[in-house]
């Protein structure tokens, strides 16, 4: 069957593009999808930050244990985690550095809180979560060494 050319009004309708109503419908659908997907994404992002903090605390724990074996005790609160990178004064048995890189901030950009002796063990090492305050729930929950 031979192809019949389109009439001028039909050709104009095809070339005209989308109507405002069609664009609004697409925008509403995209908004609904974003409303469903975005909370799930940000929940997963918060969980991954907590996993990173947990892994960093575990790495610090291994370095602190090696420090204790060499020096005979954990760094004091005043010496802090910096003692894992640079020798504190008057420690001839220091064999470090015990960490390959500088001490990173927690995944939320804040320093870890180190105290020795700790309330929960020989030392306490804590990331205060997304809110930077003790306690909290969900993404704001503390990640600690005990």
UniProtKB/TrEMBL annotation:
TM region(s), chain numbering: 20-42
**Which superkingdom heads the taxonomic lineage of this protein's source?**
Bacteria
Q: What PANTHER family would the database entry show?
A: GENERAL SECRETION PATHWAY PROTEIN G, TYPE II SECRETION SYSTEM CORE PROTEIN G
Name-wise, this protein is Type II secretion system core protein G
Q: How does it sit in the membrane?
A: Single-pass membrane protein
Instruction: Give the primary localization class.
Output: membrane
Stretches assigned to the Type II secretion system protein GspG C-terminal domain: 41-146
**Region of interest: Disordered:** 124-146
By sequence similarity, the record places it as follows:
Belongs to the GSP G family.
The residue range of the signal peptide is: none
What keywords is this UniProt entry annotated with?
Cell inner membrane, Cell membrane, Membrane, Methylation, Transmembrane, Transmembrane helix
InterPro entries of this UniProt entry?
Answer: Bac_GSPG_pilin (IPR000983), N_methyl_site (IPR012902), Pilin-like (IPR045584), T2SS_protein-GspG_C (IPR013545), Type2_sec_GspG (IPR010054)
Gene name in the database record: gspG
SUPFAM superfamilies, sorted: Pili subunits
Protein location: Cell inner membrane
């Amino acid at each position: 069957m031979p192809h019949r050319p389109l009439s001028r009004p039909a050709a104009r309708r095809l070339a005209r593009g989308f109507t405002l109503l069609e664009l609004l419908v697409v925008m509403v659908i995209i908004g609904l999808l974003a409303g469903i997907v975005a909370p799930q994404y940000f929940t997963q992002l918060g969980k991954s930050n907590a996993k990173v903090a947990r892994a960093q605390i575990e790495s610090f724990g291994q370095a602190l244990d090696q420090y204790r074996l060499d020096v005979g005790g954990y760094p004091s609160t005043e010496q802090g985690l910096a003692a894992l990178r640079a020798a504190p004064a008057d420690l001839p048995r220091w064999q470090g550095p015990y960490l390959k890189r500088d001490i990173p901030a927690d995944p939320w950009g804040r320093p870890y809180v180190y105290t020795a002796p700790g309330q929960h063990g020989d030392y306490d090492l804590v990331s205060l979560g997304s809110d930077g305050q003790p306690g909290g729930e969900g993404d704001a929950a503390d990640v600690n060494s005990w």
